[in-house]
Structure formats: structure tokens, C-alpha cells
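Exercise 7.
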Amino acid sequence: MCGRYASIKAPADLADEFRAVDATDGSVEADYNVAPTKTIVAVVERHPRDAEGTPDRDTTERTLRALRWGLVPSWSKDAKSGARMINARSESAATKPSFRRALDARRCLIPADGWYEWQRGPDHKQPYYTHHADGSSLAMAGIWEYWKPKDDPDGEYPDGLVTASVLTTSAVGVLTQVHDRMPLLLPSSAWAAWLDPDTPAADDAVAALLAPPSEELVASLELRPVSPLVNNVRNNGPELLAPFEDVPEPLQLDLLAGPDPA
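Solution. The predicted structure, written as C-alpha cells, is:
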């Protein structure tokens, strides 16, 4: 699963990295401990609309936007469900009423510097941080949705709410020692196909991307134990990423069991 991650890069830098236009309007700051229901950055690609709201089907725009983490389906009666829908399983999202419409037409990328996962021991949980060794951003596959209350249009969300979920998949390689699930990571070569608003989820080009990432991609990642400080969402600073040495013996990873980088 993916229940906590770090998003540190400035939106302007992310816009360059993901070849997008920054439309976050300064609403997102560096966050070392992104938690459910927080405002996050996502990359979306849509047809631009004219003043009357008519989309131009001949062109698309890729933008960086601020969304809330925890998907609220468009048909939901209220926004409370979002806290429970931070993740969607890639294997079943196409058949789940909460996710299938978004997967079909509103896919996104959720940039992250790295994500946290907890390895469970007999009487202890040890957090690990996984990131790209070269410092580039992870591109987590996501889906997004727009929700607007029908019974109370002038209530807490008069302008509606845009929310997102991170897709997860089976862990690969050494990551299986920490948890059996991981975010669905997409290489840059897959971004265009994933973001294409006109390609349905059933299309072979999209369906192929729902499989676990390659061992080659996972081999480019580094993971390390970090302090239990990350367990508390109120802790938020670079100290959360520092290597942690005091790991119980049963929870130390056998890194040799991971994929061979060669």
C-alpha cells in the first residue's frame, strides 16, 4: 500500500520534470510526511476548454494541479469516504464502482520524492523510505475525481472538491521484504499513454501499465530504515529521511535478496 510519502520539490521544478504547466497557484508546499486528506500535487492532461466550457478535442494540456489525497466518487453523498480511499488496487480498479470511471477517463501521475512503508515484526513496526537513487521523482500512477455536493451546494465545498487515489500493485524484488504491496510506479516512457484522456482503461496501452513495475525499475530504487518519528503525522522535516541505525535484527533487510542491478 501507500499511506505516507514525501513530496519536497517545488512545483516549478516538478513542472519542468514532468513537462507540465504549473497550475498549483502556490497552494502546495514541501511536505516530508504527506498523509491522507492533505493537499497533494498531481499531473493531469486534459482538453482545454473555451469560455463556454467546450473542450478542444484536437489538443491537450498537461498541468500540475493541487488535489486532496483520498478519492471521493462523484456519486458520493458526502466527502467523508475520501479518507478511506487513498489507494486503489491496480488489479481491480477497473471493476470497482468507486474507481472505474476515474480509471477510464481521469488518470493522473502523483509525483513523490519517496514513500514510506512499515515492515511488521513480532512486536515492532519499522518504517522504510524508498526513493530513486539519482534523486529524480517517482511517478506514482493515480486516478482523480471531481465531486460536488447535491444536497448542500452552498455548504463546506461550494466549488466542489477534486480528489485522488494512488494505485497500488504487488511488491517487486527486495521491496517484498518490507510489504507485499507498493505504489504502481510508471517510467517516463509510459507517462503519455497513462495521461491520455481519450484512451480508455480497457485499451491495451493502458491495461499493460497496470502490471507491477519491472525489476529494472525497482533496481534503480534505494530503500533505508528511517526513524519512527515518521509515525506521527505532526512530525514534518528532513530528519524523517535520515538513515536510522537502531533496527531490530528480525526487521533488517537482506538486500542481497533484491533484484540484481547488473
